[in-house]
Amino acid sequence: MATTDWYVEGISYGNCNCAYGCPCQFEALPTHGSCRGFEVLRIDKGHYGGLDLSGLKVAMLYAWPGPIHEGKGELQAIIEERADAPQREALERVLHGEDTDEAATHWWVFRAMSERVHPTLYKPIEYEVDLEARSARAVIPGVLESTGRPIKPPHGDAEHRVQIHIPNGIEFETAEIGSATSATGTESAIRLILSDSYGQFNRLRHSGRGIVKS
Length: 214
Fold this sequence. Notes:
Blueprint: E1 6-16, E2 35-48, E3 51-52, E4 57-64, E5 73-80, H1 85-95, H2 106-112, E6 114-117, E7 121-123, E8 126-130, E9 135-140, E10 144-149, E11 162-165, E12 174-184, E13 193-207, E14 210-211
Parallel strand pairs: 5-6, 5-7
Antiparallel strand pairs: 1-2, 1-13, 2-3, 2-4, 4-5, 8-9, 9-10, 10-12, 11-12, 12-13, 13-14
């Protein structure tokens, strides 16, 4: 249940092991039966109570042995190391689905469907993203390296553009879909080796009540 008022807005980039389109977005089973991936977010504007969160970056690693709704998953949050102690505590609560109405955000669902929560990491987060171009680069030393790009058809070098629009979703209203390649490092509790799989680029607007409509 939402208690402390909070809001975060920024550009999110993620990569999971599913094929382009990600069946989870259509209430279908994951491409390979299991679900593994990550997301990284640049908070352009945000607060937790009276605490300013603007300018910070966060990431989340996650994995489930089957579809997310069957649970038994694990997750690990990463918060930019330059966040001070109150900001770290606030962001950890947000990413773990606390101070949030039941099932109002994907972070709440991820936490509810995870039986193991690994210790939060505090690391430098290098993150560049261009939403319109469907391109991104994320580097968290010892934890994650990822690049995102547009989908290219097999019959030419053009860029394929496709969007997913979910007006009543719990993660985004509209996402640009691309291709992404990612790998985790030795300091990550969750292992990822992804190559040209589902890449997602979207503007995220979350509060303790759910998505804030654009």
